[in-house]
Amino acid sequence: MEVNSVENNKKIMRFIVESNDARTFDAYLDLVAEDFVGHTHFVPGDLHGNKSLGEFFYVTEEVAFPDGSHTIHNLYGEDDKVTLELSYLGTFTGPLPDGTPPNGKQIKFHYNIICRFANGKLAELWWFPYDSYSLMKDLGMIQ
């Protein structure tokens, strides 16, 4: 299979999402570049290194939303980029990495992920919630 084949990159992203839902956060470690960078507003600064992605998903999904699951609505790819449109549904029962305490509410939110691949591995990732205000309100981060 071609190293940066769009179809292979899409399969990798589907596998990462499915592995997160199965709570096997290290299953995709070898599919993420060692110098991976992840951009998210859920933690201060960026994520760095291939282990950081699984660790991020562990604390935001296994700890904060242990019953959560994703739905992939659209998955697109071109050249070295893949974009996913997803929704996530889970009950907020554990703290977030920034210290936001759980409120026991079931939360559903939609977001996009833009991914860049290099040498057949996930190299960079950006998260974009559709409605950050509503999500932060549902999480109890703002009144």
TrEMBL record:
Biological process, per Gene Ontology: polyketide metabolic process
Gene3D superfamilies in the cross-refs: 3.10.450.50
InterPro entries: Cyclase_SnoaL-like (IPR009959), NTF2-like_dom_sf (IPR032710)
Annotated protein name in UniProt: Ester cyclase
